[in-house]
Amino acid sequence: IYSANYSRAESLLTSDQREDQFLTTGKICIKSTFTILKELKKRNSKQIVVCSPSHILVPILKTITGKSLVLDAGWPLSDANFTRARNGISLFQALKNFIVDFLAFQAADKVIVESKPQKERCKKVFRVPANKIRVVYTGVDEKRFQNKDEEMPLETPKLVEPVIFFRGKYNFESGLTNLLKAAFSLEGLAHIVIATDSSFEDKNIAGNVTLLNRKLLDAEIMYLYKQAYISIGQLSNHKRTKVTIPHKFFESAYFGIPYVTMEESAVSDLTGGSGIYNLNNSQIADLPNFLYNIIRNGTERNSKANEIKLFYRKKLAQEKLQSDFRSTLMK
Question: Residue 21's pLDDT is what?
Fold first, then answer.
């Protein structure tokens, strides 16, 4: 059971699974739950797999059907309790998220998460036995970028090399304000493209920053990655960076673009440093120089690009992760 157009499911489920073995669901409500139960009765499956973000279905389906149930959580819903702090989240919603996570993790026979640090966190926070949790990385749906021509976003002026690319949400976790501040010191030295969900109307933006605050086409995303010298990950010490692996990391690795992130992060834990540049606290304070040194050292940057591309092919290719996912379901 998965939500259509949800990045993790689109990456890990093969097209055959999505069409033949899995049910799609939109917003979970009483009507949709009854529809799912009716369809499950017709299929008479021995195992039910619920994909994120439909965690709330897990205790319901387990109680009613009693069948073996796998939750492909990826990450807890309650992560939103602190990643959305910039926009605010009600105490009721935060408590609801935590309760749904706890009940879902307890009811599932097996839980799949996005990283080894996330596994350790879920063991501790939700009291889940270690032998019940598996790790399968999220990856990227490679078909989105295959057999397509690159397309420059209309809002993007002619890009002047070198290009620094940031793609992702604007929240406390992103540390995006650190990049916005650094941009002023990089005027004339780098062109910074930021694809995010904020227009930053309350902030002064440097002249070398191109802001794209809309949903980009896949062809546009492909164009921007291929123009980039480096890809910017999370630039903060927010606690979630230690357990989660942003989707943009997988995109960067797929395109072979060196990735900048904090040294104490789940990305650093996964790669062991291959293809990435690690930042520490003191370097955040001197971010312009850190980024400029990367830009001007083409030999090291090209080496990092080759490292991250090779790491992706060996460890994170979609076909491999789909195989890992299928194997995890069968064990």
Answer: 62
Token pair 């943009």: residue: 248
Please give the model's pTM, rounded to 2 decimal places: 0.90
List the Cα angle 316/212/190 in 5-degree steps: 80
Where are the strands (E) in the chain, listed by range?
47-51, 68-74, 110-113, 133-135, 163-167, 191-195, 209-212, 228-232, 259-262, 276-279
Helix axes 30-43, 57-65, angle to 10 degrees: 50
What is the DSSP annotation of 258-314?
Answer: -EEEESSSHHHHHHTTTTEEEE-HHHHHTHHHHHHHHHH-HHHHHHHHHHHHHHIII
pLDDT tens digits for range 90-120: 778 888 999 999 999 999 999 999 999 999 9
Confidence of residue 8 (pLDDT cuts 50, 70, 90): confident
Residues with Cβ < 8 Å from 156, sequence gap 6 or more? Answer: 193, 210, 212, 224
Q: Token digits for 19?
A: 């069409």
* pLDDT at 83 (0 to 100): 61
